[in-house]
């Protein structure tokens, strides 16, 4: 995250109003609720993990044991069990 100079962004009236509350400090202004992305959406990891979990469920339906899936995906027994028995 880079810093943006308030003089360059805010209209003068708004900047003066903000300075009544805080001046010379750093202020974080968050994105609006609807504009925030969920964890992993930018990097693609969310999509990757959803696909991996679907592959694990499909393999389990085809007859692979949880132990075999643990070895194949390098996950713990509890992690694979949680994925396999989730309601997705």
TrEMBL record:
- What PANTHER family does the annotation carry? MU-LIKE PROPHAGE FLUMU PROTEIN C (PTHR37812)
Q: Where are the transmembrane segments?
A: none
* InterPro entries in alphabetical order: c-mor_Regulatory_Protein (IPR052411), Homeodomain-like_sf (IPR009057), YraL-like (IPR049739)
Q: What is this protein called?
A: Mor transcription activator domain-containing protein
């Amino acid at each position: 995250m880079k810093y943006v100079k308030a003089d360059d962004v805010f209209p003068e009236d708004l900047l003066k109003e903000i300075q009544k509350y805080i001046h010379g400090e750093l202020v974080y202004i968050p994105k609006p609720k609807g504009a925030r992305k969920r964890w992993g959406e930018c990097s693609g990891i969310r999509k990757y993990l959803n696909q991996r979990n679907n592959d694990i469920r499909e393999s389990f339906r085809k007859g692979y044991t949880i132990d075999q899936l643990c070895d194949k995906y390098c996950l713990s027994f509890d992690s694979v069990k949680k994925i396999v028995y989730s309601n997705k």
